[in-house]
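Cross-check.
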Amino acid sequence: MTGYDWRRRLALFPDTTRLLGEDEEQQLVIAGCDLVELASEYGTPLYVYDQATMDNAVRSYRQALSASYPEAWGITYAAKALLCLAVGQWARQRDLFIDCSSAGEISIAVAAGVGRENLVVHGVNKSQADLDATLAHAGTIVVDNLFELERLLALVDGRTEPLPDLWLRLRPGLAVATHAYRQTGQESSKFGMDAAEVARAVGLCIERGLPPTGLHFHLGSQFQDPSPVTSALAVTLDLMVALRAEYGWSPTVLCPGGGWGVAYCEEDLPQPSIDDYVTLVARQVAQGCRQRQLPLPRLQLEPGRSLVARPGVALYRVGAMKHTSGRRWLLVDGGLADNPRPALYGSCYSALPVWQPARPPAEPQWIAGPYCESGDVMIHGLSLPEMHPGELLAVPVSGAYQLSMASNYNGARRPAVVWLRGGEAYPVQLREHAEDLLRRDLPLPGSALETLAY
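Predicted model, tokenized:
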């Protein structure tokens, strides 16, 4: 980690973050809301989301697409980054598409009022329940493989109800520079079909009288060099030429996925430019189609992390400090259960004290949680001011792929979520309670809990 530059570290926080107060009473404030008061009211760990930062990210995508792509375009919010009722409503109010990957996610989107025309379904191995929910509620399904396509065509045979548009997922054989677990476009990936399989799928769909409408690919997540995406676009456009020659078919929609990264710690700054990424992709599609005399398709992008990661901040309360060989530990009340990313991907994070972040730094500190795993270390060797039990630590860029992957490990109760807008704070997810952990459990057959013998 770099040295302690709290002003630079503030650039990781939501757009509305300010340091308010006088001298020794300064504290972080987001969207005009007092984080100390919120932590006291809702408990910790606590996740807060700044709507203004989310809206600014959507605006950046829209402005870049409007300026760089001459035909129709759209934005699909990747629900796997974070989906709850409030996020679904936020996306619907902004006329974003939402992509879901299970019947469970579809149910949340539908409850949020997302209409059929704005609901897209992904998934590498869709269950019968997933397909049933897709046919009932979704306007688009992204077909991952030929087995799924056969099942789907059998399900829709003879149906008179509206059918979802079909997009076919291509595996371009390329990967972006990111953690191996987040790469999805390489030849060895479990996702998508190769070019020959896509061609077979197009032929099968046309034969059955249900031609596909779109092509989709996705190379991976949390990348900051878009050059592999431009290479994958060239592969996809060449395939479109071949498909037009063989079947007389061209997609009306082209979706090159999402995955554009964000800065998680100071070393990643400045923030990767949404405008540069979108402009490069849009111009590549427009120029590539013109060069190949292909009709320009609707361009559909699928950001998730770059819309909700930086708007989210996790608040933790310090419980204890200790020294071990060469390490000063700062132990907080959350970690692995609400944020598995450091253990899963080795992800980098930073943090600031909520109260008096401008204090002089102490020695580097290792921030860890209470869970029974040595991998429950959120941040390694971070320069921070001296902190004391009961004080609050704010971890920025906590909005994506944390709560969506949270667990009840060690009986952890998933945290509350508060939505910040215009100086007001609105709870949008309640903290789980002990009774929630038992909600699905049943006693052993024929045994009353109070009379169990050992």
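The mean pLDDT is 92. DSSP finds 13 helices and 20 strands in the chain. Passed to J.P. for a second look.
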